[in-house]
Amino acid sequence: MLDDYEGSDDDESGVDGENKAARRERKRKRFQEELEEAMEQRELEPERKKTKQEVMKEVIAKSKLHKYERQQAKEDDEDTRAQLDRELPDLLAALRGHKVKPTNKPAVNGGLHPDRLAQINASTKEGTEKEYDQRLRQMAMDKRAQPTERTKTDEEKAEEEAERLRELEAKRLRRMNGEPVSSDEESEGGEKDPRDLDGDMDFEVDEEDADEAREFGLGTLKTGVSIQPDVEDEDDFVIDPDLVASGSDVDLDSDDFSDEESADEAADDEEDADFLQDLLPKKQNEAVDKVAPSKALAYTYPCPQTHEEFLPIVNGVASLEVPTVVQRIRALYHPQLHAGNKEKLAKFAAVLVEHVAYLANHNGQMLVIESLIRHIHSLSKTHGDAVARAFRHSLQRMQETGQIGPGQLVVLTAIGSIYPTSDHFHQVVTPAITLMSRWLALTTPSSSALSLNGAYLVALAIKYQQLSRRYIPELLRFTLAALKSDTTIQDQELTSQHIHNLSSMMDLWTDKPAFTDIFAPAALALPALFKTTPKPARQAHQKLTILSNQGQLRRRPLELHHHRPLPIKTSIPKFEDNFNPGGHYEPDRERAEAAKLRKEHRREKKGALRELRRDAEFMAREQLREKKERDRAYEDRQRRIIGEIQREEGRERNEYEREKRKRKGRF
After folding, report:
1. Is the pLDDT score of 487 beyond 50?
2. Where is this region: Disordered (predicted)?
């Protein structure tokens, strides 16, 4: 082992020697090249007297060359001595008669043994690369290797939520004003919850709305909406393995769907559930949830592509179990189970839109209709085009027939609960508002049914304009016509509902500049109802009077703007009686102010420089005074020391003289 290390040291020393020799050779060549270049330059130039700089450069170059040659000779001697020192142990061993052990071949590649190196080189690269790829895939798929977001504080969460709401409100206002919206915002807006798109839309059911719904034949609504509903969204169901088609080898936990997409869908579902529960009272939600699926209900159903195919499926099913059938169809044909399920569910969503109108026309239960609307709302987030086309098709049929029945009323209500109604233009909401306005403008409330449908449409249109507050003249026109109709006056509850709509329109358009002119006909129509419906009519008339007076005060007559009169500019030169050549006569006020500021700045600058000079002189005087004091103290201390030394020398001299005289007298 000792011989191995010594051999290794010898090899390392040899390598160092070779490196030093190479460096010396390069350095010597560089000096020679510099010297030759200087000589050539001197030969090319005409003969002239050298300057001092050129002479010094030549002297420095020669000095460097001679110094390098001496250094090289010294290094050669040192290398020779080092070589002799390394060979001395072998020489001594040979002189003593000892056998010198052969030195092993030095290890290469970082000290690996030759046998070990051969074994490594003999291994195949294919296995190594395969193992590397496998470990790389494992590391990429390892969830623990992925960074996670830190836990946020309550303040940070509240700030993020407030920022999100502000962004959504800004987007909604841009859409409401008809401003251009980028494609990214449109795509985001299409997937957001309508509650987010329309802000905090108020869908709470109060007592008057309950009476209104009862008057319209839409069922009895109970007051007291749950603030935090317990019912989950129609998307929040677990796909039962028994519902999956036989022979299907689809894995619902496939890696094709990332965790981020699942998290986004879950967040959308939670927001969807919160919004949809605002449409249903708590007791109705509990009633829907408590309906247990019948044991006779099948677990597998075909996915109907038309309404005619869907009717045989639900004909033998109890009405309250229809949402369960729809839920199981959505589970069976989930988009993750098969590639073609997405198209099937898109057509099924259109079937549900048609079936909602069908149930309303055939006296279906409102609980079932509302549950199906929740399914349609959920499907509209993933199949928005299909649902929008289905609604537009229903609106087109409504336009062709010109009649509005319970089915059409439910469709219009579903549109208002699914889509944002405050946009400046929307492909579904805008045609719906146009159709409602057209019907209200062309229909005369000659019967109780027409008056009832009109009252519901007016209330629905007011809900549509809750945020945008756009003026729709057809609403007030139909309401006033209904209040003047004999059929409406005979029904006290229906009259109260029209008065309630009129009061809602007052609140909606109270900020309009033409409020007084818009509701002037209503001020004449309300006193005629004091006999039939005294309390609602008097309250509405009093409210209208107050709002009209306030609106009249806000209206100011047109007048000119109150501007300061500006003098007319003239080109006539201005003459000064007492002209002073040293003064400034600048006609422009801004330039005069600027010149004044510049002058003041120069004056302040001079004053500052004067203060700085005074401070510098004072510091110099103080430093000189301190220096003189230090020098004076030093001189005093030096004179005192010299005096003490001289006195000591005098005493010693006197002592010496006395001793000398004593000795002379003795001898």
Report:
1. yes
2. 1-82, 95-217, 244-271, 570-667
Tell whether 348 and 481 lie within a shared domain. Answer: no
Interval 594-610: pLDDT, tens? 999 999 999 999 999 99
Is 92 within a domain?
A: yes
268 versus 430: the higher-pLDDT residue is 430
DSSP string, 330-367: HHHT-TTT-TTHHHHHHHHHHHHHHHHHHHHHTT--HH
Neighbours of 203 (CB within 10 A): 18
- Burial (0-12, 13-18, 19+ Cβ within 10 Å), 538: middle
453 shares its domain with 403: no
pLDDT at 185: 53
220 within a domain of the structure (yes/no): yes
Q: Among 214, 168, 192, 377, which Cα is nearest to 271's?
A: 192
3 state DSSP class of 419: coil
Residues facing residue 108 across a β-bridge: 112
Q: How far is CA 72 from CA 30, 35, 64, 81, 270, in A?
A: 14, 18, 12, 14, 85
Q: Does residue 546 have a pLDDT over 90?
A: yes
CA–CA dist 446, 554 (Å, integer): 38
- Among 31, 61, 96, the domain-final residue is 96
Distance, in Å, from the CA atom of 324 to the CA atom of 234, rounded to the nearest integer, reads: 10
Phi first, then psi, for residue 581 (nearest 5°) are -60, -30
Find the domain containing 537 and state its range. Answer: 421-554
**pLDDT 10s digits, 426-439:** 999 999 999 999 99
- Is the residue at 239 inside a domain? yes
**Which of 44, 370, 365, 114 has its CA nearest to residue 231?**
370
